[in-house]
Structure formats: C-alpha cells, structure tokens
Amino acid sequence: MIQPAATGYRKDSESETVLRADDLSKRFAANGPGVLKSVSITVGGGDTYAVVGPSGCGKSTLLYLLCGLLHPDAGTVRYRGEPIVRPHPEIAVVLQDFGLLPWKTVQDNVALGLKIRGVPRRERRQKAREMLRILGLAGTEDRYPSQLSGGEQQRVAIARALVGDPGLLLLDEPFSSLDAITRERLQHYLLEIWNRFRVPYVLVTHSVEEAVFLGKKVLVLAGRPAAIVEVMENPGFGDPSYRDKKTFHAMARALRRALDRAARGE
Amino acid sequence: MRFVRYVAALAAIVLIWWILSALFGGGNILPDPVQAFSAFGASLGTPMFWNHLAASSGRVLLSMALAWAAAFPLGIVMGSSRKVDAWLAPFVFVTYPVPKIVLLPVVLLLFGLGNLSKVLLISLILGYQVLVAVRDGVANLNPRYLDSVRSLGAGRLDLFREVLVPAALPHGFTALRLGTGTSVAVLFFVESFATTRGLGYLIMDAWGRLDYRDMFVGILGMSLLGAALFEAVNGLEHVLCRWRRARIR
Ligand SMILES: Nc1ncnc2c1ncn2[C@@H]1O[C@H](COP(=O)(O)OP(=O)(O)O)[C@@H](O)[C@H]1O
Ligand SMILES: [Mg+2]
C-alpha cells in the first residue's frame, strides 16, 4: 500500500529525547475541576506511545498541551529542549474529525501546512502529490474531502501531517469514527508508515486493542483529575501479525485489568 | 425535465395573467401578456428604457457591493471573536427588528435626495441580513477546524483566509441571494420619488399618466432585474464555493 519515497527522512537515534513533558496540570475554569494532574511523559527517538483512557478523561487535553494548542497551568513541555508555547512546525497533529477543510481539495489540504510556512506553490504542490503517492492516495488530489470515504480522509490527514517532515506525530483518536474493518486496516497502515518513516508518535485512544497494536509503550490515563496510573512496556509491538499472537492477547488482558484497577480507584 | 417544469410554470403564469386582464376591463386597464410583451419588446429599442435600467441596476449593484463589503467581514469578526461579539451583538439585535425602511426620511435628511440615500438604504437593509447570517454561520463553525489549522502554525491572517472566509462564504451567499428580492423591492420604493431615472420611476410615472403599457414595461424590467441578480449571485456562489457542489462519486 505504501510506495517507496524518493526523499530521505530524518532518523533520530533511539536514545535521543524528542519530547519531554514534566508535571503537566490543567483545569479549564479557575475554580473548576482539575482535568490533568502532574502528567509527565518522555518520548524518545524510537518511541511510539499509546495513551489509553475512557472518554472524557482528558486525552485530548493532554494532546493539546503537548502540541502547544493549550497551555498548562503548571509544568512544561519541551521539544528537543525548546519550550513549547505555541504549535511547533516539527510537531504534526492528526485529529479525529474536522482535521481536513471541506473547502480545500485533497492536494490543497495536504499542502496547507507548507503554504502557511511560505513554501512556494509549485514546490508545495509537488511535495503534496509525492506524499499522496507514497501513502497510496494517488488520483485523489483534486477531489474534495466529502468525496472520500472516512478511511481515505484519515489517510489524507496523515499525509498532511507527514508532508512537513515532522519530528513528532500526535494523533487524537484518529480512527475512532471509522467502522471496525477500516479501523483495523488503518492501524496496519499507521504501523507501516512508522516502519518506513520512524517518526515517533503519541497516539491517544479509548480502544485497548488499538493501544496494544500501536504503542511500544502504553500509558493508562485515569482519575479525576487524570494522571498516568500505569506505564506498560509492550515488547511485541512492531510486528504486523502481532494481532494473531498469544502475546497480543495477553497484553490486551493485562491492559484491561489495569484499566479496571484504575476505574476502581486502586 | 427541469426545463419542462419551468416552461410549464411560465405558461401557467401567463394563463392566469390572461384571465385576469380579460376579467378587468378586457385588456384596457390590465394589458394582456401579448400587449405587455410586445410593448416591452418595442421599448428594448429605445434609449429611454436602457437609461432607466442602467440607473436601477447601478443603484442595486452598488448597494449589494457596499452591503457585502461592510457586512461580510464584520460578520466574520463577530462570529469568531467572543469579545467583539459581546459588544456588538446587543447593538445588532436591538436594531435588527426595526424595519429599516422607516428610516428613509432620516436617511434623506442626512444624505440628501440623491443616489447616495437610495444606495445607503438598500445596503443597510441587505447588509443586516448578510451580517446576521455570516455571524451565525461562523459562530457555529466547529472549533476543531481552527485547531487543526492552528496546529500547522497558522496565525490570525492564515485562519481568516484559509478557514473563516471560506466557511462564511456559503452563509453570505445564501443571505445575498434571498436579499436580492428585498433589494429590488426597496429599490422600487426609493425610486418612486425624488428621481426621474430608474425603473421604479418609470412604473410610477406611467401609472400617473394612465399609460399601462409603459407601466408594464417597468414592471417586467424590474422582474427581470430581480431574476438576473438572483442568478448572478447563484453563479458567483457556483464559482466561489465549488466544494459545495462536490458529490460522492
Ligand atoms: N475547552 C474546554 N473548556 C472546558 N472544559 C473542557 C474543555 N475541553 C475539555 N474540557 C473538559 O475536560 C475533560 C476532558 O476532556 P477531553 O480532554 O476532551 O477528554 P477525552 O479526549 O479523553 O475524551 C472533560 O470533562 C471536558 O468536559
Ligand atoms: Mg478526545
């Protein structure tokens, strides 16, 4: 599905710290309930993180803090040592819905980040086309998002994220509005992309299977205010046939138990 | 099929017209369609008609442009900025129910009897409709669209150009299209006095002279002007909002 690229991609050494968030706390109203409390996360060059938690626990809030769309009340976010106070050009975000603009063609959606950065029209179009080709979306360039299936739309959103040569990818439940079959396909697709580009990512999800399939490390976010209550290493990650393995199911069971413990407040 | 339905509708209208003109004075007071259209056809060859049409179209087009230029950006700003909206919304919604047409004497006092007053009154009425439609449309835009573009590093100007303007366009065009009817109605009203140019003047003057054929030339002219404006706005929307026509293939 994914075509070979002509361009070379930055590869981080596995040990290098890409993103470091320390003790993030957030509440929306001055005397409202806390949403996040003391959340810390360190993303290395070879890492992929899956953050799992029930709906409404603060996953999107965490992702918004990591990319600088929101500011924490306490704590800091640093990308390669640089404090994040606003969106950083090397951090790309994929949202669940509404990520693509309905009034732009697929090609113009993919090229939008480059346009905002001032890349000349010819160059950004060429890059967008190239990325669409690599991601198996050739032929959709001049369509509008409404003319694509939900799965194709999310692939375009991923293309848009990758075209700017990001150093970190943040994904907010990117597949949760898709049907089960398409969702599984796109999970494989993301894994293929990761194997090819090796861009570290943080993916938040409320799906146990998705977390186990896509996270080298799986974090459990729970409580009110939410904190990271469990960090699980997932050594089977990276194998496209992981889903069929016993170790996958064992890992999913362990994660479910962790979520149950968290729900009971242990 | 669509064409057939339109022809059928036109035929029905002509038929009703015919019956009415026969009932009221047998064509002497209300000209029948043949008389009216032949008078209209004949007037197309006179500079008099084109002068009136040019005056009317000029006024209404200028009014529409003015209304759009003022109301479209203001609607976007109100719809997208809570702070601005908090101050301006009460002002807009207190004055919104006031029928702006009753302000005509005030507008005439302030801006004189000439074209300026006529244009201002039409723009005021049309502008309100565009303003409210655009403001509501932008306010209902899902904020995730803005977040997603902001995450690409967009500044205020980028958000305006890439998100707010295109999101507002269909709302603005809907209001403008519906407003063409109102605009021509107000045009007729403001042209019925203090001017000797315009289709509204032509109608009222012919009426006063008991020249019912000329009167119908004016009425047909204004109807066609309204229809042409409606279609022009449709066409503009067609070109500027291409994504609205995109269908799943
Ligand atoms: N902009 C906001 N203003 C006020 N409350 C918010 C805002 N965004 C999120 N919240 C609240 O914060 C909590 C966590 O929301 P969110 O991060 O969207 O959860 P999740 O993504 O895990 O479903 C929810 O209770 C939600 O109502
Ligand atoms: Mg969420």
TrEMBL record, chain A:
<dbReference type="InterPro" id="IPR003439">
    <property type="entry name" value="ABC_transporter-like_ATP-bd"/>
</dbReference>
<keyword id="KW-0067">ATP-binding</keyword>
<dbReference type="InterPro" id="IPR003593">
    <property type="entry name" value="AAA+_ATPase"/>
</dbReference>
<dbReference type="InterPro" id="IPR050166">
    <property type="entry name" value="ABC_transporter_ATP-bind"/>
</dbReference>
<dbReference type="InterPro" id="IPR017871">
    <property type="entry name" value="ABC_transporter-like_CS"/>
</dbReference>
<dbReference type="GO" id="GO:0005524">
    <property type="term" value="F:ATP binding"/>
</dbReference>
<dbReference type="GO" id="GO:0016887">
    <property type="term" value="F:ATP hydrolysis activity"/>
</dbReference>
<protein>
    <submittedName>
        <fullName>NitT/TauT family transport system ATP-binding protein</fullName>
    </submittedName>
</protein>
<keyword id="KW-0547">Nucleotide-binding</keyword>
<keyword id="KW-0813">Transport</keyword>
<dbReference type="Pfam" id="PF00005">
    <property type="entry name" value="ABC_tran"/>
</dbReference>
<dbReference type="InterPro" id="IPR027417">
    <property type="entry name" value="P-loop_NTPase"/>
</dbReference>
<feature type="domain" description="ABC transporter">
    <location>
        <begin position="19"/>
        <end position="248"/>
    </location>
</feature>
Automatic annotation (TrEMBL), chain B:
<dbReference type="InterPro" id="IPR000515">
    <property type="entry name" value="MetI-like"/>
</dbReference>
<keyword id="KW-1003">Cell membrane</keyword>
<dbReference type="GO" id="GO:0055085">
    <property type="term" value="P:transmembrane transport"/>
</dbReference>
<feature type="transmembrane region" description="Helical">
    <location>
        <begin position="91"/>
        <end position="113"/>
    </location>
</feature>
<feature type="transmembrane region" description="Helical">
    <location>
        <begin position="60"/>
        <end position="79"/>
    </location>
</feature>
<comment type="similarity">
    <text>Belongs to the binding-protein-dependent transport system permease family.</text>
</comment>
<dbReference type="GO" id="GO:0005886">
    <property type="term" value="C:plasma membrane"/>
</dbReference>
<feature type="transmembrane region" description="Helical">
    <location>
        <begin position="216"/>
        <end position="240"/>
    </location>
</feature>
<feature type="domain" description="ABC transmembrane type-1">
    <location>
        <begin position="53"/>
        <end position="237"/>
    </location>
</feature>
<keyword id="KW-0813">Transport</keyword>
<dbReference type="Pfam" id="PF00528">
    <property type="entry name" value="BPD_transp_1"/>
</dbReference>
<feature type="transmembrane region" description="Helical">
    <location>
        <begin position="119"/>
        <end position="138"/>
    </location>
</feature>
<keyword id="KW-1133">Transmembrane helix</keyword>
<feature type="transmembrane region" description="Helical">
    <location>
        <begin position="184"/>
        <end position="204"/>
    </location>
</feature>
<keyword id="KW-0812">Transmembrane</keyword>
<protein>
    <submittedName>
        <fullName>NitT/TauT family transport system permease protein</fullName>
    </submittedName>
</protein>
<keyword id="KW-0472">Membrane</keyword>
<dbReference type="InterPro" id="IPR035906">
    <property type="entry name" value="MetI-like_sf"/>
</dbReference>
